[in-house]
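G.,

No rush on this.
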Amino acid sequence: MINLEIPEKLETLVYQAHMAALHVLRPISRKYDSAEHSYPTELDGLAELVAQANAAQAGLASVPETGSGPAAPAGGAASRAGNVNGRNLASLVGLIEMCWGDVGLMLTMPRQGLGQAAISAVATPEQLKRFGGRWAAMAITEPEAGSDSAAIRTTAVLDGDEYVLNGEKIYVTSGDRAELIVVWATLDRDAGRGAIKSFVVERDNPGLRLDRLEHKLGIRASDTANFVLENCRVPKENLLGSPEITTAREGFAGAMQTFDNTRPMIAGMAVGVARAALERTRELLEAAEVTIDYDRPLHSLPAAVAEFIGMEADWEAARLLAMRAAWMSDNRMPNTVAASMAKAKAGRMATDVTLRCVALCGALGFGEDELLEKWARDAKILDIFEGTQQIQQLVIARQLLDRRSTELK
């Protein structure tokens, strides 16, 4: 049975992550929000400490021994060893603390990236050995394929011992700074989603051309790159997973397993930034002599207090859903529905809570003297990437009703 308190063995991890957020990320948060596309050199020392420490003690993205992203769920029945508070839960609680500090800076932390989750999910042991420990971004979205990953048009054609990739990728988080790019491409456009595979491309591959860096509403410390792939040749060994997959549909299912790992982590990021906004709002309300009283009925409280308590309840619901999804993965339980529920709830909660905190604090919340307005801008992306609200609802409905996406339109 899951206990939704922080496990005792992870308390040191949480403390370390919080200290890093407090003393490294918060002091430079506004600086790199203003200096978009400037690399935060202050993170190098912190990244080196993370690289030298065991992932379960670092408070950042914990990984298999040979990888660098959240551990992939094994699926199937719960672990026979009993309750496991493992690396997915460790990743989650660390991310919450780091995003309490700054979401954009956390995303641009060297050797952290969503590509590691894709590698961990479907890579062979040999691939894990080659690519583990390296900074990997993930390139899925295209101009004509956003939420619908099955509409990908980037092609991969086998030519001797290499695949030749052609296409365009947009909104690649940390794409310009990462060492590796995990590119989703199709082996046959006519075969639909079943032909989609993921390939590891070296960032300095001459066939991978940086087109531009995006200017964004939030997470401005994190670079978001657009790429063009022009006859980009990669060794056939860089196709993630085994080439002996019996059906093409299984290949797409393997690639999509990445999201079961990463969506609870995005939920954790949303929980972190929303907690930051709630804590600062509480401080400003108390400074204005507004008392948060939990002993009185909501209808008898001042409107600002009642609204604040309601936001706290919404935040707690999102936190518990995120922890449950990560715990299920650690205990080898299929968590597709739980991951989408957590991501949907937390993304919406963070957007709503941070904007309402700005409103509650009035001019203070809207000005740049406080980080509240920045947190509201940063939170919006957490409701969009890794699948929008609509996509999460579609995933949940498809799983619960046992129907295909086309049957739910």
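When you get to it, here's the other one too:
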Amino acid sequence: MMQRLLQFTLDLFDTRPELPAAPTPPRRSSGKKTARPVPPRIEKAEPFIAEFVGPSLPAQTLQQALAPATFRHPRATRETLLEGIAIGYEFRRGKRRTIGFSVGAEGLTVSAPKWVPLYEIDKAVLEKSAWILTKLQETRARHERLESARIEWKDGATLPFLGEQVIVVLDPRHAFGGVGAELKSNDADTLPGVTHLTLHVGLPHSATPEQIRDAVQAWLMRQAKRIFTERLNHFAPTLNVQWRKLSLSSAGTRWGSASADGSIRLNWRLIHFRQSVIDYVVVHELSHLRVMDHSPRFWDTVRAVVPDYAELRGQLKDDAIPRW
């Protein structure tokens, strides 16, 4: 009797909602089909739990969520939506046979023949969407790397020279033989086997950022002229060609060029890269003195001297060098 009275009291004050019992799985039979069990009604608390333990977002949806919201060319005349991302692109008409796509620092440019209707342009852009988005994201990432590598011109600034980090030191006591700067190696102040490179510049500590930049650039260009000349002389006999004139360039998009008369132009900023990368560009331009195009024969010529040219070529695109 006391047991029943106690149970009745517990049941009376228990406020927990009674959840429906799980349905009993139907028995298999070889005869009539059994109806599928009706799932139990979900209480209000269930969706809250399911929100955290449910499946994750699809990969593409997550990629779209993390991707930049828009890419817009400063001279954009048309706009489209690719995988949820707004793309404003420069559109050009010209004398050409096919629709062309190019992605540069400013964004996407689409070029098309005059006779191609706009709906065909839209269709071609959509079909090329994967390539366009990949290139735009790569270009934006590279721009961000370049911006992060921008040099703050002051005493203690760092910059790459032949693939090594060099620290700028203002040293007003010396003129360094009239050349304005001198590279020094300090092994004593570093760990064993670690070289500490400093570029001592003959300027006062009150020098402006522009003065420091110009002095360092002048020194780098002298080193570039010396090293490029040395590497041209090294590889020319191997390729059985003769170069006649070297000029330094400051082109924003080209690392080098070659003319049929033996003139070579090399971007002085190559001096920031490792020597193996410089050697690839030197061999590339010297190879043009044998083959004046980018045919398979040209690349075979380059490969014969620099077998890993593809990897070195990739470093020219991927490595961030300082903005000046």
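The two ends are 94 Å apart (CA to CA). The mean pLDDT is 80.

Enjoy the weekend,
O.
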